[in-house]
C-alpha cells in the first residue's frame, strides 16, 4: 500500500461542481501553508498566494475569467467554488511558471487530503495583465510585478470523486 502522500497523488481529481458552503479558515490556512512549502528554483520562493473568500471579489474575478475565456454569459469558470487561491510569481524570475506550478500542485494535494475538492483554473496570467487585474492586486497591497500562474479553486465537492482515466502507455523510458 502506498503511503498517504502517494495515495493522495493517485486519488486527487479535478472537481468541477461545488457546494456553496464556505471552507473553514483553518483548512484554507493548511492548504496555503502546503503551497508555501513547495520547492522552488534555488529556494527563491518567487510565488505568492492571494486568498479570495470575499464573494464580491470572487465573482468579479470569475467574470473577468469568463470574458477572457470567451465562455457563455452567466457561466462560472470557478464552478461555484467559494474559495479561490490565486498563485502569482515574480515576473523577473526565470523559473516563475515552474515554481508557481509546484505551489498549485501542493495546494491541490493538500485540499484533497483535507476532504476538499480543487481544480486548477487557467487565465490568471491574462487576468493580471489587465489594468483591472493590476488594480485589484494594488488594492490588496500587492506591490511589484507579478505574473498570474493559476487559480486553485477549493470547496466541498457537490459530486462524487471521478474515476481516474486510464494512464496512457509508453510514457516511461529507461536508461539502466
Give an overview in words.
The chain is α+β, with helices and mostly antiparallel strands. It has a domain of 120 residues: NADH Oxidase (3-Layer(aba) Sandwich). Helix 1 crosses helix 4 and helix 2 packs antiparallel against helix 4.
Q: What would CATH call the architecture of one domain? A: 3-Layer(aba) Sandwich
Query: What percent strand?
Result: 15-25%
Question: What gross morphology would you assign?
Answer: globular
Note the total helix count.
6
Low-pLDDT runs of 5+ residues are none
The neighbouring-strand order within the major sheet is 1-2-4-3
- CATH topology assignment of one domain: NADH Oxidase
The CATH superfamily of one domain appears as NADH Oxidase
What's the SSE pattern?
HHEHEHEHHE
Mean pLDDT across the residues is 96
CATH class of one domain: Alpha Beta
Secondary-structure blueprint:
Blueprint: H1 4-11, H2 25-36, E1 47-52, H3 55-69, E2 83-90, H4 96-113, E3 117-121, H5 124-127, H6 131-139, E4 146-155
Antiparallel strand pairs: 1-2, 2-4, 3-4
Concise description?
By secondary structure, this protein is α+β, with helices and mostly antiparallel strands. The protein has helices at residues 4-11, 25-36, 55-69, 96-113, 124-127, 131-139; strands at 47-52, 83-90, 117-121, 146-155.
Amino acid at each position: 500500500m502506498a503511503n498517504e502522500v502517494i495515495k493522495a497523488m493517485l486519488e486527487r481529481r479535478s472537481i468541477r461542481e461545488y457546494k456553496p458552503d464556505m471552507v473553514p479558515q483553518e483548512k484554507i490556512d493548511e492548504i496555503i501553508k502546503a503551497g508555501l512549502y513547495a520547492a522552488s528554483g534555488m529556494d527563491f520562493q518567487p510565488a505568492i498566494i492571494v486568498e479570495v473568500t470575499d464573494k464580491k471579489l470572487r465573482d468579479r474575478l470569475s467574470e473577468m475569467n469568463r470574458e477572457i475565456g470567451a465562455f457563455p454569459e452567466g457561466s462560472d469558470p470557478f464552478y461555484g467554488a467559494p474559495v479561490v487561491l490565486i498563485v502569482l510569481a515574480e515576473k523577473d524570475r526565470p523559473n516563475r511558471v515552474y515554481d508557481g506550478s509546484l505551489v498549485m500542485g501542493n495546494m491541490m494535494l493538500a485540499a484533497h487530503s483535507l476532504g476538499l475538492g480543487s481544480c486548477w483554473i487557467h487565465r490568471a496570467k491574462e487576468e493580471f495583465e489587465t489594468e483591472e487585474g493590476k488594480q485589484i492586486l494594488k488594492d490588496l497591497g500587492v506591490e511589484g510585478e507579478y505574473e498570474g500562474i493559476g487559480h486553485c479553486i477549493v470547496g466541498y465537492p457537490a459530486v462524487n470523486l471521478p474515476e481516474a482515466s486510464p494512464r496512457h502507455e509508453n510514457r516511461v523510458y529507461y536508461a539502466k
